[in-house]
Amino acid sequence: MRVTNRTIAGRRAFLLGLGASAAVGACTVARRPEQLNDEVQPITDEKRDFTVIGDAPLRDRAAAKNLIYGAATGYQILSSDSAFAQSFAKECAMLVPENALKFGVLRPSASHFDFTEGDALAEFARAHNMLFRGHTLVWGQDFGGSEWLRNRVNSQNAERVLIRHIKTVVGHYAGEIHSWDVVNEAIDPSHGRADGLAKTQWLKFLGSDYIDLAFRTAAEADPKALLVYNGDLLDHDTPDGDARRAATLNLLKNLKSKGTPVQALGIQAHLWANKPINASKLRAFLRDVAQLNLKILITELDVIDQKLPSQIDRRDRIVARVYEDYLSIVLDEPAVIAVVTWGLSDRFTWHSQFNPREDKAPVRPLPLDAQGKRKLAWNAIARSFDRSPKRKV
């Protein structure tokens, strides 16, 4: 992902300053404006029946098909909004910390690891019979979110720093984690490398083998956790999307060929409602990943409504259609085992800060509205789970 001048540390300060009403920082950063201008599709206001049978929460509908549904959230939100916490426990079977386990938040100094927020979220997950996901161990933006990392890490000590970080963090949660995003957003074809790797500081100091090193270290620290490469911008039918899918597939093939213990691909799926998805291309990509004997998780799903009409009912119908159309494609692939939305309620979404609407209207990218009520997006996800083929256990 292209790095902006907004750091993880800055997002954390934003969260702590606004408390439970804050927009929540996501794994990815705001897209550059020029990315919105190419390969867009007309916004259609298709009338569709989003009726759902029954009142079962998303976690139960997913579980009926041997799928996992979950969402990302933050410590400040759950601890200060009891109504939201109840909704989260009701709807979700998996909890993903939005920021608490990122390098810049978890490790404020070279010598200190702060597990306070991560442990509180893990305890919430345990108390409500939820799985706990780890996000994320290695990310190119680690250096942007950590002053000491920028100033003190170099080619002589980077390997030692990385290994210690992974061993300490993965070891701390060993036995409690369903899956780890071991390496996050390592692909960016625009950087001009033949292998498509993003030119991060980890790559600069350690070379491309930093990815293999990260996975081997994580596997040693917790042999039971599912180890995931988490990729971005893999969904849309654009030249950049084509290049990212090809580079990601090549990366996974190379890792598998050398015995790297990568076990799954995470697809972020921050979907632009006005950009096209080619079902054939996406199905073929998912099939190619599955043929590598890898599981697939949809790790950060939401629908960006920045360019949609201002009328709420119309906007909600379009967002719901995007959810249902996308999930109808990905859930046909048996290797897909989980769907995680990047947030649950519109009250707590990173898009409020990073992808706001020009008309200043509140954004509406998630299953529940700002008051915690189910929207058509919730219906669309529920219908997709109900229609999904049942996975083999």
List descriptors.
393 residues, alpha/beta, TIM Barrel, 8-stranded parallel β-barrel, 39% helix, globular
Q: N- to C-terminal separation?
A: 34 Å
Strand order within the widest beta sheet: 1-2-3-4-5-6-8-9
Question: Quick one: how many beta strands?
Answer: 9
The CATH architecture term is Alpha-Beta Barrel
Order of helices and strands: HHEHHEHHEHHEHHEHEEHEHEHH
CATH topology term: TIM Barrel
Based on secondary structure, the structural category is: alpha/beta
Largest sheet: 8 strands, parallel, barrel
The CATH class name reads: Alpha Beta
Averaging pLDDT over every residue, what do you get?
90
Overall spatial form: globular
Fraction of residues in β-strands: 5-15%
CATH superfamily: Glycosidases
The unreliable regions are 1-38
- What percentage of residues falls in helices of 4 or more residues? 25-40%
Please tell me about this protein's structure.
- This protein is an alpha/beta fold and about 400 residues long.
- The chain has one domain: Alpha-Beta Barrel (TIM Barrel), CATH 3.20.20.80.
- Helices cover about 40% and strands about 15% of the residues.
- It contains 15 helices and 9 strands.
- An 8-stranded parallel β-barrel has the order 1-2-3-4-5-6-8-9, surrounded by 5 helices.
- The longest helix has 19 residues, at about 240-255.
- The chain is globular and about 60 Å long.
What layout of secondary structure does this protein have?
Elements: H1 8-18, H2 58-63, E1 68-73, H3 75-80, H4 82-91, E2 94-97, H5 103-106, H6 116-127, E3 131-139, H7 147-152, H8 158-172, E4 179-184, H9 201-206, H10 210-221, E5 226-231, H11 239-257, E6 264-267, E7 270-272, H12 279-290, E8 295-304, H13 312-330, E9 336-341, H14 351-354, H15 376-387
Helix pairs in contact: 8-10, 13-15
